[in-house]
Design a protein that fits this description.
Number of domains of chain B: 3
Helix content of chain B: 25-40%
CATH class of the largest domain in chain A: Mainly Alpha
CATH architecture of the largest domain in chain A: Orthogonal Bundle
CATH topology of the largest domain in chain A: DNA polymerase, domain 1
Distance between the termini of chain B: 54 Å
CATH superfamily of the largest domain in chain A: [2Fe-2S]-binding domain
Strand order of the largest sheet of chain B: 4-5-10-6-7
Oligomer: heterodimer
Number of helices of chain B: 11
CATH class of the largest domain in chain B: Alpha Beta
Number of strands of chain A: 7
Helix content of chain A: 25-40%
Order of helices and strands of chain A: EEHEEEEHHHHEH
Largest sheet of chain B: 5 strands, antiparallel
CATH topology of the largest domain in chain B: Uridine Diphospho-n-acetylenolpyruvylglucosamine Reductase, domain 3
Strand content of chain A: 15-25%
Largest interface: A-B, 33 and 31 residues
Shape of chain A: globular
Chain lengths: 173, 297
Amino acid sequence: MAEYRDYVVKLTVNGVTYIVSVKPYERLIDVLRYKLGLTSVKEGCGRGECGACVVILNGKVVPSCLTLAIRTNGAEVQTLEGLAPEGKLHAVQKALIEVHGIQCGFCIPGFAIAIKHLVDNNSNPTDEEIKEALDGYLCRCGSYSMLIEAARLTAKYVSEGRRYFDLRECLGE
Amino acid sequence: MHMPRFDVYVPQDLNDALSFLDERGEEAIPLAGGTDLLTLIRAGVVKPKILLDLWPLRKNLSYIRREGGYVRIGALTTVDEVLANYLFRDSRYLGFIDAARGLGPTFLRSIATIGGNVATGHPLSDMAILLLALKAEVKFVSRHGERRVSIDEIYLDKRKIDRRPNELIAEVAFREKPMSSSTAVLKIDRRRGHSMGYVVSASYMALEGDVITDVGIAFDSLGKPYPGRAYRTEEFLIGRRFSEDTIAESSKVLELEMTRLSDYRAPAEYRLSLSKTLLKKCLLLVSQRIKEELMHG
């Protein structure tokens, strides 16, 4: 079997800079899940059709299953794990809990990233804009109406300046 | 990890990439956004010896310029960058907004490129059919020079375009259109987002008063596994007065050209009916866009 050379890739994930060695065929999802242990990044379809593996790469939402790791040298990546500081929840996480937007939860990391990215760029989105931002993310439990509601609520919190919430309070402790 | 193994050549710049293709073009596949090619590799349909990573060339090949009476789009411009560009708020070029929105979800628009869409040669060609309707030209470059080809001449067969192994698509360009003209792209499928479309249609039309002075009509997902233009329908429309009657007559011409295929997605009869409906809807939308521009400027 042919040997493939290793590429050294330096990337910042959730504010922490890592130097990883990758093969040419490895994808960003392989790095995030199996090298860095960020298992919120889910491999649903592996072909850019479901949105479960979506992360924010240099300010844009990208499917990490269709992004070769060698393309991410110098990049800044955000995953669900990095949405809020330790002990806090991001507004989108609080909103998802409040509207009961989660059933099996597999699609949620993608939806949370999509909603976070939307409200970062537009804190007062219309329903049309919410639907466009969530287009292509699949939820097989069919919780779409709750997920749209969660996006509305997230936007409300963020536009009120309430971006982070105390984790313990959210859990009712 | 489910990705088959392959090697990738990461070029320093365009010259490096073209030198690489000159030597190994026969066995190498250029990789743009990867939204199509990587899925084919993962499915085992394409087994590449080596890929040529085009992403490092984005510093030179992602741009949208108006220059010398032409609109020029660098091949590695992403669909997102098209959506964000002010040029495409020009009422003449609103078809680009239709095409970009219809192409796929935000997370694919952020990496899918115009050159990649043109090069795929497969019914996923929202951008390519608009460029067909606009009678765009494709600029191929190699170490030995460049070649400009009308986009309707590059499609040879399913996923087969007239690109030589040592060439890359560098740019697509089209002549700036007259003020009283516009474009539209429409597709019909069971759902609105994230769909291929049973039939996809793009139209460009220029009017002088109510006379059609120039028109371009393109379809995808009809009968051939790559997009094409409805030349006879275009010829019929040029010089006629724009009206619903004219469109109705032109759809009889459309029946006589292009083929319609039956497959698991739609029977040929349905595709024929859809193609006529989309021709009408597209031309009416284009004329509405022209009218609105004339009224509001």
